[in-house]
Amino acid sequence: MFYGTRITFGLQSWQVVQTYDGTATVKIGGSWRLEEGAKKAGVSSVTPEFRLAREDDNSLVYDWKAADGFTDKTWETELKLPRGGLYRLETCLDAVSAKTGEHWRFRGDIRTHIGAGDVFAVAGQSNAAGYGSGVAFDPPDMMVHVLRNSGNWDMAVHPLNDATDAPDCPNAPMGQTGTSPFISFGRAYAGFTGAPVGLIACAQGGSAIRQWDARQGGVLNLNMIRRIKKAGGAKAVLWYQGCTEALESNTVTYAEQFRYMVDETRKALGYEIPYYTFQLNRYDVPHDFDAWNTIRQTQTDLAREMKKVYLLPTTGMELGDEIHNSSAANVALGEELARLICKGAAAPLAEEVCAEGRQIRVKISLLKGELRRQCNIRLNECFRAQDDSGIIEITQVTFGGDTITLELSRPAQGDVFVSYDMEEAPFRAAFRDSATLLPVIPFYRVKAEQRR
After folding, report:
1. Which of 104, 237, 328, 345 could pair with 136 in a Cys bridge, judged by C-beta atoms 3.0 to 4.6 Å apart?
2. Is 376 exposed, middle or buried (0-12, 13-18, 19+ CB in 10 A)?
3. pTM here?
4. What confidence tens digit (pLDDT) does each residue in 90-108 have?
């Protein structure tokens, strides 16, 4: 027969609660029942109580406190967690003897491995859901937790997106998933901030952006919003998507649909949640290069134009198959994303492209240091210049400070368009920021300003 206190809503073991101004708040509650022997002995009062302890040294954050409200069967209270953890929540039923005044604290449910830190929704398609393959050191960490598709919180391990006990979850995978960048991200982020990280698995392999558009059903985005609310809020959305539109050559409406999705998500949540987006990597089979690169350039433009939308290039990362990042690449991408968020870094961006005679100069902004060449390749193979007469041979590439100069075999005629790490060539990440080590964001057919 049950007696004591039970927790029936509000908090699970392994849960990470989003902090605001250094505190995470969650409403918890449940039921209680007094032990029959205590009833017979006589009690003057009965109070459901709770306390919070640190798991690393067993010290108390605070000792027993009475629940804010309770009836003869139920109780509830607002639990406040200082940023950090991991914590253990204990409950009990405090019964005071009518004869002696002695406190009898009867047993209660506990919740363990609770964190107060930052929560991130993982959204998009297969590279977000995690289809990485290959061996890479990417271990679980006590500070990185996941809200799985089953609705249960757990320690984060690969695969984050699984179908266990989640047959009706909209983003439950159709096939077996693999590794993603987000355990690596969580480890690095927790290392920078000292606070636990919670991940909400929301991505679906193969999903098109229309499945994230409320005007077209948008079941995946509605599911993400519901799960963020249930978790008590999130710090940001980590978005990796666009392959479907590129492979279907459906590029015209991508920007408008992305903007709508972000706006609707922010309206539904009631705050301007940031989006950290991954620019597409390459696709190693014959395909429509123009569509693929158009999506990549659209992702760059969206990050440039939209408030609190940021971009991380995946250029130069190893593939595990024709389209999915390898496990080793996922580890590296996760660490880069954590640096981008925690260190206030931004991937370098082509701010100005100018053509004059036989030269094209590309000025790079958002550098914390200076341009650094990262690979021993012919730099002219990383760029393409094209004008009204066709492709212009690039004879030499030089760089210094924040500027890259392309020497052309002939003067440009009419409109000139320049690409970097795009077209049919493999994406090599030839240039990085010497301070942040983030790669220069690739660009596609950017129109050069003519200077004469």
Report:
1. 328
2. exposed
3. 0.92
4. 999 998 888 888 888 888 9
